[in-house]
Write a structure and sequence with these properties.
The structure holds two protein chains of two kinds. Chain A has eight helices and 22 strands. By secondary structure, chain A is an alpha+beta fold. A six-stranded mixed beta sheet of chain A has the order 6-7-8-3-9-10, with helices on both faces. Chain B has a two-stranded antiparallel sheet with strand order 1-2. In chain B, a hairpin with a 5-residue loop joins β1 and β2 (about 45-50). Classes of the chains: A alpha+beta, B mainly alpha.
C-alpha cells in the first residue's frame, strides 16, 4: 500500500512535441492517497489510459516523476512496481486452470506453494470462483474471465495500487451492476488503493470516494461526487456529470455580479474577473433552478415527465434553459419566472470556475 | 410430425457444383480406381484382376523403402520448419517500416516456381561450380550431392527448409499479431518470464495457425515431386526417391498402369489418414 504522487508528469507519444495538442498528458500534479477508491472519468481520448499506463510503468512519461510513497519509481519496470491492472478485455491464460491463473503472479515471484494455495483459495472465495477453480479458464464466460483478471490483481498481498481500465465494457448489463458492487465491497475489504477508469458517470459515482475528471490531457477537477455535482470546477464537469447537464448562460460581469442579457443574477459572493478572460458564463444545474413569482422571465417550451421528476425546457430570448422540478410542484402555464439557487450558481471564465 | 414443404426441384440448384466436382475430382479418381483392379497389355484391352495390384504394392520392398524415405523426409522438415518458422516470426519486428520489408523478404521464396527452386539449388550446390558446394568443400568437408546419399539428403532438406519455412513464418506471424497488447502488459505486471509469455500466451494463441501450418507442410512435403526431381532426380541410386517420384517411375517409366493406380490409392489413403490423425491430435484440447 502506498500513496501515489504524480509530480509534474507530462507525456507525448511523439518524439518532438510542439503544439499543446501533441501532449497526451499536459502537466499533471496529482496525489492519490493510500487506500482511496478513485474513479478516473473523461471522454474517450482524454488521456485516461495513458495516465494509467504511466502509473503502472507500461509507459515512461516524457517528463516528470512518479512516486510511490517517497520512492521514485519513474524508471522502475512494471513487474517491480507491485501494481495490478485489469484491462478492458479480460486477459486469461487459456491453457491454465482457474487456479493456475490466480496462482500465476505468486508463482512467478517464487512464493511457497502452500502459501499460494491458501491465498488463491481466499481470493476465489471473495470472487465466488471456488466452484470453478479446477476448470480450464478458457471455458468461462466474459464476466468469469474478468473476475480472474481481477483476482490476479488481488491475489498479491503487496500491491500498491490496483487499476481498472474500463473493466466492465464487455460485461452484460445485469452482471455489470453485480460486479461493480463486488468491486466496491472488495475495495473496502482489502483496503487497497484502486483507480477505476471509465467514461460512464454512473460507474464512476457508485464506485469512487473521489472522482478525477480529465479533459484533453488535463485533470479538470478532483472531488467527491457531491463536490462535482454542487460545484463543478469546469464547465466540462458541469455537463459531463449529471443528466441533463449544467445550463451555461453567457454573461457579463457588472460590479462583481453576473448579468445575463441585462438580467442581474444573484450569487453568493461577488467575483473578480481575471484580466485575460474572454468568455464569461453563468453555470447552474437544472436541479438548482425553480419557478418563482419574480426572477428571469421565461417561456415554457416543453415538459418531460421522467418518473420521479419532470424536466422542463424554457426559453429566455431564444436561450434554452433546462430545469428539473419534483412531481408535486406546479409548473406555470406558458410563461413564468426563474429563480437561481444562490449558493449553487457559479461563474466561469473560459470554462474555469471563479471562486 | 412437422409438416415441411417438399420441393425436390431445389436439387437443380446444386447441379452445377455436382457437375464441376464430378469432372474435376470424381471421374478422374474413379478412372484410377478402375485401373487399379485391371490388367492391360495395350490395345485398350483390360482384364479384371481384383486386389492383386494392391497386394503386390503392399508387399513390395520397393514401396516400403520409398514410403520410409518419404516419412523420414516429412518428419525431418516438419521438425526443422515449424520451430524455425516460429522462432523467426517471434524475432520479426511488430511494427514500424521494417514489418513490410520483412514480410516481402519472407514471401519471396514462396513466389518461385518449384522447378526453378530445384534448378537453382542444383546449380547452387554443385561441388565444382556452385557457391554452396564450393563453400562446403572449402571448409574441408567432402561434399558432392550427386554422388553421396547423405549430401543429397542434406541438400534436399536444406532446399525445402529454404523454400517453405516462410510459409510457417507468415502463418505464425499472423497468429502473433492477433494477440492484443493487453496480454503482454498483463504478463509483465504478473511478473512472467519471457519463456512463460511464450508458453502461456504466444503458443496457445498460435495454436490454430500452427495446426494449419503443420497440416499444409505435411501434405505438401508428403507429395513433394518437382524439387527433388530437378535437384537429384531421386538419386544417387534410389536414396532420394520419394513416393511421388517412385509413382511416376512406375506409371510413366514402366507404364505399369495397374500397380501405379493401386499405389496412388494407397498413397492417397495414407495422406488422408495421417492428416486426420494430425488434426485430431492438435485439436483435441480445443474441445475440452
Amino acid at each position: 500500500m502506498a500513496k501515489i504522487t504524480l509530480d509534474q508528469v507530462r507525456h507525448s507519444y511523439l518524439d518532438h512535441p510542439e503544439s499543446p495538442d501533441d501532449w497526451a498528458l499536459k502537466e499533471l500534479d496529482v496525489v492519490w492517497s493510500d487506500g482511496g477508491a478513485y474513479a478516473l472519468l473523461g471522454p474517450s481520448g482524454c488521456g485516461k489510459t495513458t495516465l494509467l499506463n504511466v502509473i503502472s510503468g507500461l509507459l515512461q512519461p516524457s517528463h516528470g516523476r512518479v512516486l510511490f510513497d517517497d520512492r521514485d519509481v519513474t524508471n522502475v519496470p512494471s513487474e517491480h512496481r507491485e501494481i495490478a491492472q485489469v484491462f478492458q478485455f479480460p486477459v486469461v491464460y487459456d491453457t491454465m486452470t482457474v487456479f493456475d491463473n490466480l496462482a500465476f503472479p505468486l508463482r512467478n515471484r517464487g512464493i511457497p506453494e502452500a502459501q499460494v494455495k491458501s491465498r488463491v483459495e481466499e481470493i476465489a472465495r471473495m470472487l465466488d470462483l471456488e466452484a470453478a477453480l479446477g476448470n480450464r479458464a478458457s471455458g468461462l464466460t466474459a464476466d468469469g474471465k474478468q473476475k480472474i483478471s481481477l483476482g490476479r490483481g488481488l491475489v498479491r498481498s503487496d500491491v500498491n495500487v490496483i487499476m481498472f481500465d474500463e473493466p466492465l465494457t464487455v460485461i452484460d448489463p445485469h452482471l455489470k451492476w453485480q460486479l461493480r458492487s463486488k468491486l466496491k465491497e472488495l475495495q473496502q475489504e482489502v483496503g487497497a488503493t484502486m483507480i477505476y477508469v471509465t467514461h460512464d458517470q454512473t460507474e464512476a459515482l457508485t464506485f469512487a470516494d473521489k472522482v478525477v475528471v480529465m479533459l484533453e490531457g488535463q485533470v479538470v477537477q478532483i472531488g467527491t461526487p457531491e463536490e462535482l455535482f454542487d460545484k463543478p470546477g469546469h464547465t466540462f464537469v458541469g455537463h459531463f456529470i449529471g443528466s441533463p447537464g449544467m445550463n451555461l448562460l453567457p454573461c457579463e460581469i457588472v460590479d462583481g455580479f453576473p448579468s445575463f442579457l441585462g438580467h442581474k443574477v444573484d450569487i453568493a459572493q461577488a467575483v473578480d474577473v481575471p484580466a485575460d478572460a474572454t468568455r464569461m458564463e453563468i453555470g447552474v444545474r437544472p436541479e438548482f433552478l425553480h419557478f418563482d413569482s419574480k426572477g428571469l422571465p421565461v417561456d415554457i417550451v416543453r415538459v418531460d415527465d421522467v418518473g420521479r421528476y419532470r424536466i422542463v425546457e424554457v426559453n429566455h430570448k431564444s436561450h434554452a434553459i433546462k430545469l428539473v422540478t419534483p412531481e408535486n410542484v406546479p409548473i406555470p402555464e406558458d410563461k413564468g419566472h426563474l429563480a437561481f439557487d444562490l449558493t449553487k450558481t457559479h461563474v466561469y471564465a473560459d470554462g474555469w470556475i471563479i471562486n | 410430425m412437422i409438416d415441411k414443404t417438399v420441393n425436390q426441384r431445389a436439387w437443380f440448384l446444386v447441379l452445377p457444383v455436382v457437375v464441376l466436382v464430378a469432372f474435376n475430382a470424381l471421374i478422374p479418381l474413379m478412372t484410377v480406381v478402375n485401373y487399379s483392379v485391371q490388367e492391360t497389355f495395350g490395345n485398350n484391352v483390360f482384364f479384371f484382376e481384383g486386389v492383386k495390384w494392391f497386394e503386390q504394392i503392399l508387399n513390395s520392398e520397393r514401396f516400403h523403402a520409398s514410403l520410409l524415405r518419404q516419412l523420414s523426409f516429412t518428419g525431418i522438415i516438419l521438425l526443422i520448419e515449424i520451430p524455425l518458422g516460429v522462432a523467426i516470426a517471434l524475432s520479426m519486428p511488430k511494427k514500424g517500416p521494417w514489418v513490410s520489408v520483412c514480410l516481402v523478404l519472407m514471401a519471396l521464396p514462396l513466389l518461385i516456381p518449384w522447378n526453378v527452386v530445384g534448378a537453382m539449388w542444383n546449380i547452387f550446390a554443385l561441388p565444382d561450380i556452385g557457391l554452396l558446394g564450393r563453400m562446403i568443400n572449402g571448409m574441408g568437408f567432402d561434399y558432392n550431392f550427386t554422388q553421396q546419399p547423405l549430401a543429397a539428403w542434406f541438400t534436399t532438406v536444406l532446399m525445402d527448409v529454404w523454400h517453405w519455412t516462410s510459409l510457417v513464418v507468415l502463418l505464425a506471424y499472423a497468429g502473433l499479431s492477433s494477440i492484443p497488447d493487453a496480454y503482454y502488459q498483463a504478463a509483465r505486471i504478473d511478473g512472467a518470464s519471457a519463456w512463460s509469455v511464450f508458453r502461456f500466451i504466444q503458443l496457445p494463441k498460435m495454436k490454430r495457425v500452427l495446426t494449419i501450418a503443420v497440416l499444409l507442410r505435411f501434405m505438401d512435403s508428403f507429395m513433394i515431386y518437382t524439387e527433388p526431381f530437378v535437384l537429384t532426380g531421386g538419386g544417387p541410386g534410389n536414396t532420394t526417391t520419394f513416393l511421388s517420384i517412385d509413382l511416376v517411375k512406375i506409371a510413366l517409366g514402366q507404364f505399369d498402369l495397374g500397380p501405379a493406380a493401386a499405389m496412388s490409392l494407397i498413397y492417397f489413403l495414407i495422406i488422408l489418414v495421417l492428416s486426420w490423425i494430425f488434426y485430431t491430435l492438435m485439436m483435441r484440447n480445443e474441445e475440452q
